């Protein structure tokens, strides 16, 4: 696949396509300060491909090699970015599944709640209580002056903080997800607390499955935790979704 993808602002979206030979394509979105080449994103794409499932991993605008300004990379803008990806894929794919990590998980919930092109959803340590996250992680940082986690490549913007505060929480969106949904979270995640997954899981009335990985951090950094995440998601998509 070599089709160019641009968002509504004309910004080019950088992506990598993994051809697993399936009509179904799993789109993988990263979290805040991440990009399509983060280890967990790449590992999931490779695991899916090895199982015969095609995958597309991409960087939201303003992140990685995608065009745009990182300071504009809000959840709301990334929901639109995902829509641009779906616009292209719906012409070439059968079913489309979205898997999002952290803030990318919040993007998935908002998109899947209103876009029927997403046929199944995977949330990996998905952010749910957005206002709480903003205030806990960056409440003592001055927007426009400081950075996210002291990373000079990731300046904290007022637009980002305002967007997370305005969204507040996605808990009630759980009941609006009507497609099969898998939620994965590690018990030692200190960035997005596991309570986020428990809270929204309780609201969901769809066909849902929760995978809790004991001892895992936010990015499944240990090989055994990464492997459990990849195997769990791959198996759920391939077997649980009738794609064997």
CATH H level: which superfamily?
Alpha/Beta hydrolase fold, catalytic domain
Q: What is the C-alpha radius of gyration, as a whole number of Å?
A: 17 Å
The helix-and-strand class reads: alpha/beta
Number of helices: 7
Beta-strand percentage range? 15-25%
Shape: globular
- Strands, count: 7
Helical residues, percent: 25-40%
The first-to-last residue Cα distance is 23 Å
From the 3D structure, determine the CATH topology: Rossmann fold
Q: Which regions are unreliable across 5 or more consecutive residues at pLDDT < 50?
A: none
Give the total of domains: 1
Describe the largest sheet.
Answer: 7 strands, mixed
CATH class: Alpha Beta
Q: Mean of residue pLDDT?
A: 96
Output the strand order for the largest sheet: 1-3-2-4-5-6-7
Provide a descriptive summary of the structure in words:
The structure is a single chain. By secondary structure, this protein is α/β, with parallel strands linked by helices. Helices cover 34% and strands 16% of the residues. The chain has one domain (15-129, 171-239): Rossmann fold, CATH 3.40.50. The chain has 7 helices and 7 strands, in the order E-E-H-E-H-E-H-E-H-H-E-H-E-H. Strand 2 (25-29), helix 1 (39-50) and strand 3 (54-58) form a beta-alpha-beta unit. It starts with 14 loop residues before the first strand and ends with a helix. The mean pLDDT is 96.
